[in-house]
Amino acid sequence: IARAHMGVKGLVVNTAGWGVRGATVSVAGIDKNVTTSRRGEYWRLLLPGYNYTLTASAPGFLPSDTVTVFVAEAEDGLPVTATVQHLFLKPLLEEEEEIVKERNYFPVNE
Fold first, then answer.
1. Helix, strand or coil for residue 44?
2. Cα distances (Å, whole numbers) of residue 75 to 52, 78, 80, 82, 99
3. What is the pLDDT of residues 29-42, one digit of tens each?
């Protein structure tokens, strides 16, 4: 059961710091993608002991930069936690304020 918490989690946010709802988070070499929550949160179970390459994408945005994360084994006596990795999206359009209003984004700290 402890391994159910292993993997990566984080936020997909735009350049204004708002969570991007419905963004796709992809892990290279794994066919199953995950979709962010209404606040831009994502969770992905992954086996510990490996490096994984992540990207995020969403309509109206450029894909995020590729990020490599290492999912570590839990240390003896410590709780199992996921690796935290945030992903950042830049809008295709310069009018980002209009995009925020139009898509009903949620602030990360809400």
1. strand
2. 20, 6, 8, 13, 43
3. 999 999 999 999 99
